[in-house]
Design a protein that fits this description.
With about 200 residues, the chain is of the alpha/beta class. The chain is about 40% helix and about 25% strand. The radius of gyration is 16 Å and the shape is globular.
Length: about 200
């Protein structure tokens, strides 16, 4: 264990995007490195494409799993509107990693609300450390669009102080063996995007 400060990571998106698996892999890696880790998740209407988020906090002594507004070090958003919705939680100088994907929430789909105009530009304007990831395209390149969550996890992992090999080992211990190669390939592509 090499870190004394608390690091707050918020993972957001909609149901079915693999947010909880990403959070589990992250937490497993951190626990394996001897950190105190607290995790909280809200599933919401996850099976209907509703908002889902997971908070992961780690350090030497974590008292609560909840992250306060303005305290997020890393926001990993699997959908653009969810990134905007949770942006106020990011601290000044925090990092935003966002999938270039738009999923219309129910009010937009019903025509009673409009999807915000150019969320990515707004995020870049407010956060100097914003990484845009075409996670679905890269996951398809890896062999399965459902591995977009591992692309996003790779982009996050590239900014954290842990080796790629440690991440790959943790992924291998968490995903089904038949999906391991695709998931690790997707993770690699996300890592490369963040380091480009």
């Amino acid at each position: 264990m090499t870190q004394d400060k608390t690091t707050n990571i918020l993972i957001v998106g909609v149901g079915g995007q693999g947010i909880l698996l990403s959070a589990d892999i992250l937490a497993l890696l951190l626990v394996g490195q001897g950190f105190d880790v607290k995790q909280a998740e809200i599933h919401g209407m996850s099976q209907r494409g509703g908002s889902v988020h997971s908070m992961v906090r780690y350090g030497t002594a974590i008292s609560s799993p909840l992250i306060s507004r303005g305290d997020v070090d890393y926001l990993m958003a699997y959908e653009e509107l969810e990134a905007l919705r949770w942006a106020p939680f990011v601290k000044p100088g925090g990092t935003v990693i966002v999938n270039k994907k738009q999923i219309a929430p129910a009010p937009v789909a019903l025509g009673v609300a409009a999807y915000p105009e150019d969320p990515l530009a707004r995020l870049r304007q407010n956060f100097a450390r914003t990484t845009l990831v075409e996670a679905d395209r890269l996951a398809q390149e890896a062999g399965n669009v459902r591995a977009a969550n591992l692309v996003m996890l790779g982009a996050l992992a590239a900014g954290l102080p842990f080796s790629k090999e440690l991440w790959r080992d943790t992924i291998a211990g968490r995903v089904p063996p038949k999906t391991l190669e695709v998931n690790q390939d997707a993770f690699e592509l996300g890592w490369e995007v963040a380091n480009a």
